[in-house]
Amino acid sequence: MTLCNYITVRLYHLYLQSLDLKAAVAQFRVHTKTLRRNAPKSPAQAYLQYEWLQIHHKVFAGLLDTASAQGGSASNLINRFDMVQCVGFQFFWAAQWTQMLKRWVSVALPKLPLPTMMGGEAVPAQYIGQSEGLTQPREVTGVEGEISLRKAHGLAQSGARKAAPLLGQAIAQFKDRGYERGQQTATLMTAEEYFEEADTPSTFKLYENVRQRMEGEAGPALSAVS
């Protein structure tokens, strides 16, 4: 699947460079659908599904944003009514998969055994899609399993990726398009991110921001009823 991911990202670039947005969108739909339906079988590699989907949404959002900013033919091809072609939604979905990755790290990862750390250092694969190796593979019973556990537990040590920056980009895009509900939803999700980091002031500030917006929307309707 790693090789498929690399090829697909390359296809996104090629299609958009040739202004074939329809082909790029079709490729995106097919590949992300495949990723959602085919999770890695190894428990130690389950996180890869969330990581891959996060990457694809983020990359596609960036490519769409670049095409839109260039103007001209590339910008005119974008269908503003298609959610897949909306940069804000792409960043929003990338943030959601990032949060799924964070949940996996906090819930599923602790249930996995620790790597033995035997077998020496990891050896990068010679080609994309091939399995990595170890300098002393005879020291372990399963090289692939050992490497998978090392990578999985490495997520906890390095910290799972944060969703707040992606949500910030989604909010900016929603604001530009006047999509108020999208702004509110992404803002609430950002508040949850800050809450998990024990950043109480930022959490309450965002909740208050959403509350004021909702009151502003309800005000005219309530006045009309009264």
Class inferred from helices and paired strands: mainly alpha
**Number of DSSP-assigned strands:** 2
What is the H-and-E element order?
A: HHHHHEEHHHH
Percentage of residues assigned to helices: 55-70%
Q: What Rg is obtained from the alpha carbons, in whole angstroms? A: 21 Å
Mean pLDDT: 86
What's the shape? flat
Low-confidence stretches: 221-226
* Distance N to C terminus: 60 Å
What portion of residues belong to β-strands? under 5%
Number of helices: 9
| Biggest beta sheet summary | 2 strands, antiparallel
Summarize the structure.
This protein is mostly helical. Helices cover 69% and strands 2% of the residues. The protein contains nine helices and two strands; from the N terminus they run αααααββαααα.
Question: Can you describe what's shown?
Answer:
The protein has about 230 residues and is an all-alpha fold. Helices cover about 70% and strands about 0% of the residues. It has helices at about 1-15, 20-35, 45-70, 70-75, 85-105, 145-160, 165-175, 180-195, 200-225; strands at about 120-125, 135. A two-stranded antiparallel sheet has the order 1-2. The protein is flat. The termini are far apart.
Characteristic key phrases:
single chain, 226 residues, mainly alpha, two-stranded antiparallel sheet, disordered C terminus
